[in-house]
Amino acid sequence: MAQTNPKLAQIDPVWQRICNEAEDAIRNEPLIGGFVHTSVLHHKSLEHALAYRISMKLASSEMSDQMLREIADLAYAADPYLAEAARADIVAIYDRDPASHRFLQPLLFFKGFQAVQAYRIGNSLWKQGRKDLAYYVQMRISEIFGVDIHPGATIGKGLMIDHAHSIVIGETAVVGDNVSMLHSVTLGGTGKEEEDRHPKIGDGVLIGAGAKILGNITVGHCSRIAAGSVVLEDVAPMKTVAGVPAKVVGEAGCSQPSRTMDQLLRTHG
């Protein structure tokens, strides 16, 4: 069995668990030993492992992995929130995604998690005024992961994006804490306006697959957006909306829709 470092487990239980799971993975499948070692066990912290993983995924002939890793390392060193959010995202994925059985999986295999962590690096660059470099990171995220998040968007921690194919989040969008969304979600604008033009998603919201939320509107906390819906107007907190255009069809059904991931619409006769 993997050896737990009591001091590390107390200081950083998420990273300790990832290291334990990495050692177990190598024992169970020695053929991936080199990959798991270089991605996890070679590093002294989750921040360093994330910087390595992001740099390896986004590297190209235009910008080397060494350069991208230096950019990521500096971002993690300058802003502790980035790693705090990454830990919250890992726990959220483990708790809400039935396909996730280990903390190790998002770091190694889940493109939604990897894309969001890369976005967080780009957002850090954006806030520093290094906008061209942030755009470059956005471009590579879109090319590699099929996820297009503008570096100017504001995204809270505890985010779970399941499957993460064809996600689009615009520049002035705001996503709260503990939000869950499925593939093909768009948080977009409605035209060519240049100011505040994208949705504001409250904490604890569940957004179903293929939902389009458009314009500078507010989706209240702990609400549910049904799959395939087109939302063009504000949504009150703790409501369920569905349809094209979306209308209120009931209450949210529970206090934490993003955690339960219950997407069924129920009618009561």
The unreliable regions are none
Query: C-alpha Rg, in Å?
Result: 19 Å
The CATH topology label of the largest domain is: serine acetyltransferase, domain 1
Following the backbone from N to C, one meets helices and strands in this order, namely HHHHHHHHHEEEEEEEEEEEEEEEH
CATH class of the largest domain: Mainly Alpha
CATH architecture of the largest domain: Orthogonal Bundle
- N-C termini distance: 54 Å
Given the structure, what is the number of helices?
10
Mean pLDDT: 93
The CATH superfamily of the largest domain turns out to be serine acetyltransferase, domain 1
Structural class assignment: alpha/beta
Q: Fraction of residues in helices?
A: 40-55%
Largest sheet: 6 strands, mixed
| Global morphology | globular
Family: Belongs to the transferase hexapeptide repeat family.
Pathway: Amino-acid biosynthesis; L-cysteine biosynthesis; L-cysteine from L-serine: step 1/2
GO biological process, one term: cysteine biosynthetic process from serine
Organism: Octadecabacter arcticus 238
What report would you give on this structure?
This is Serine acetyltransferase. It comes from Octadecabacter arcticus 238. The chain is α/β, with parallel strands linked by helices and 269 residues long. The protein has 2 domains: 12-146, Orthogonal Bundle (serine acetyltransferase, domain 1); 153-268, UDP N-Acetylglucosamine Acyltransferase, domain 1 (3 Solenoid), CATH 2.160.10.10. 43% of the residues lie in helices and 14% in strands. It is built from 10 helices and 15 strands. The protein has helices at 6-11, 13-28, 33-41, 46-58, 65-78, 80-96, 104-109, 111-127, 131-145, 257-260, and strands at residues 147-149, 154-155, 160-161, 167-169, 174-175, 180-181, 186-188, 200-201, 206-207, 212-214, 218-219, 224-225, 230-231, 239-242, 247-251. The strands form 3 sheets. It has a 6-stranded mixed sheet with strand order 3-6-9-12-14-15. It has a 5-stranded parallel sheet with strand order 1-4-7-10-13. Strands 2-5-8-11 form a 4-stranded parallel sheet, with no helix packed on it. The termini are far apart. The relative contact order is 0.08.
